[in-house]
Hints:
The protein is an alpha/beta fold. The protein is 42% helix and 18% strand. The chain is built from 11 helices and 10 strands. The protein starts with 6 loop residues before the first strand and ends in a 33-residue tail after the last helix.
Amino acid sequence: MGTEPHIVLGIESSCDETAVALVTADRRVLAERIASQEAEHAPYGGVVPEIAARAHAERLAPMLEGVMADAGLTLADVDAIAATAGPRLIGGVMVGLVSGKALAMASDKPLIAVNHLEGHALSPRLADADLAFPYLLLLVSGGHCQILAVEGVGQYRRLATTIDDALGEAFDKTAKILGLGYPGGPAVEKLAREGDAKAVPLPRPLKGSKEPHFSFAGLKSAVLRAHESGEHKRADIAASFQQAAVDCLIDRLTKALNENGPFPALVVAGGVAANQSVRGALEALAAEHEMRFVAPPLKLCTDNASMIAWAGCERLVRDPEFAGDPLDLKARPRWPLDPEADAVRGAGVKA
Ligand code: KG4
Ligand code: ZN
């Protein structure tokens, strides 16, 4: 490899976005394409794994070709191929990972197997060159709700996680209950703007609890009861739900800061980080604790391939001699970022 900044090709296919990007180690996104599968999954009110895997398989190859053409590059110009290798929907992950392996083999370039969560965790550093380690990260997506101390590339300490549902999942289920369709988060946020956040009494599960974790299952059930009672406007339920969720986030983050801080920066990533109420509350919390607040631009919050390519860049920069992950590496449906983290109580716990 020469002295030019590394160029990494990134592939993401772990949920319902098929995405490909070319990113440089000096933070330039040379090209990116993303295809959402919203239309395919909408009739089912959620992501159907088999449909997702098929759609990734159909779209990925032409998108790879398209991104290389957009950037005017060939595989010979690329330093490594980074593909999401887990966690989440295994069929989709396998499509992206196998494609990455094939490209790595054909071009004799290293394969970098990226943990999707690591992609989210490092994505704020792609957008913000001044964001240094360590930082306190709230990772809130459709599959995860975690507080992490991000201490370096590959060094993540999980301080809290959800004992039941992820926050994005709670947004999606609230949307379903209110008949807002899929994907739910943006629809709930939009309707909440017209509602009164104090109108519907809803619980704040685990608020004030001694354990550090999140819980959203009880909130979701309370939303269902409030809706079925017929006593509340949908907009009021949406606004009250969003407020309850934000209150839980702030309570748990305050605890994490008090017990593990200080940190120079509070950072948010993942799909729910696109929510303006969440962003606003976190910004205020950061100001209160005299921390910088960093939130990536919206298109870096929801699933994308630039964050996967960027995680690959971070790995190459940390270890220039890195020869690549083995080509027989397996896709992982579960893959905790912090292998040392204690198991938490509750069924259906998201690692
Ligand atoms: O990170 P992401 O794209 O995929 C996962 O890795 O899960 O996150 C998707 C999740 C979905 O649950 C979606 O409803 C939620 O992020 N989301 C939002 C908003 N935009 C996306 N939730 C609340 N408000 C939003 N504006
Ligand atoms: Zn994600």
